[in-house]
Structure prediction request, 287 residues.
Amino acid sequence: MVGILARVRRLPLLPLIMLSIVFVCAVFAPLIAPYDPLKMDLGNALRRPLWSESGGNTHILGTDNLGRDVLSRIIFGSRVSIIVALSAVAFAATFGVAMGLISGYFGGRLDALIMRATDIMLALPPILIALVLVAILGVKLGNVVLVYAMLTWTGYARQVRGEVLSVKRKDFVSLTIIAGCSPTRILVRHILPNVAGTVLVIATLQVGMAILFESMLSFLGMGVPPPTPTWGRMVSEGRSYITSAWWLITFPGLAIASTVLSINLLGDWYADYLDPMRRSTYVTAPT
Prediction:
């Protein structure tokens, strides 16, 4: 009991609170947003935030150049970031883990083929390849997810392969082979659980990278097509007004930075917690 309480006390509460807010906004955006994020009101264009001097009395974070409420667009933009991040990481992790398991367990020419494919992918400039692929496939939400998964599965494959090479030499794996278990059963039931912790750590950190990836493509005009509000596009649209309407860039930028930072801090905490050498700093032994 004391150990459990110690773990709870050591949880990164601030990142958890921030991510909880982002998830709540993404799920309940229509109920939380005070305005329609797509509704234009040119009479209220570039309205300052509520607390600023001469700020409007109805728009908390002000309005953009078309009179759209900035807060509402940030709330709805969280939907795109969460959908892209979770979907892309899920696809990349599934494919990458499968390739890593197959490569590490079977070895031989199959291992060499998969590893050379990962080497080729890692040698390509990711931003350039992402722009080319999105241009070819089309500017759609699904294509952004697909491109990110194609560019990041290699990290899972290489890490999982290395761990499988170690795990498959364990006695319990040898016993399952003697017992006549199929390779699929051995990989899924016996080897995969032993590498799942590492996969979760990588996936946690990749969620933040996926949000940055989507924001970068949206900033360059190659992400989710308008009029869907995204954080990256909000920053891109506000850069022309950086000297006269600072809030157009500041608040979407803070949303991106705080969300990614919270995810990275949570991932670092989880990685440290899984490390037996560091676990003592997160768990107090019962007395």
Summary: DSSP finds eleven helices and no strands in the chain. Residues 280-287 have pLDDT under 50 and may be disordered.
